[in-house]
């Protein structure tokens, strides 16, 4: 099994910043892609940002220039630095990781439990 543990959510005022962390653990051979998704009440889950093992980055248009995704590959950890937060960024943020598990080298597609981010004055 592969587990993802997230941290760093909370309540912040508009214009503020938060940093989310996500660490993958378990029987992992390698983690290929780590990503952050979010889901606001009444809306579908959407991709926020993704980083691949070769450093390729993808961002949703709504967060470009404000959010930065990074990863510490040896630690199987991804971060999401969120600046200039807006009320519309309020959502539950989920970490996702894709990779290969040991000992079978089979693929895994794992999700974290989610962390609430609320942007409000």
Question: Can you tag this structure with a few keywords?
Answer:
4-stranded antiparallel β-sheet, 121 residues, mainly beta, 7-stranded mixed β-sheet
Describe the structure.
- The structure is a single chain.
- It is elongated and about 50 Å long.
- The protein has strands at residues 2-7, 10-12, 18-26, 28-39, 46-52, 57-59, 67-72, 77-82, 91-101, 107-111, 115-119.
- The strands form 2 sheets. Strands 2, 4, 5, 6, 9, 10 and 11 form a 7-stranded mixed sheet that branches.
- By secondary structure, the chain is mainly β.
- The chain starts with a strand and ends with a strand.
- A hairpin with a 4-residue loop joins β7 (67-72) and β8 (77-82).
- The protein is built from no helices and 11 strands.
SSE topology sketch:
Blueprint: E1 2-7, E2 10-12, E3 18-26, E4 28-39, E5 46-52, E6 57-59, E7 67-72, E8 77-82, E9 91-101, E10 107-111, E11 115-119
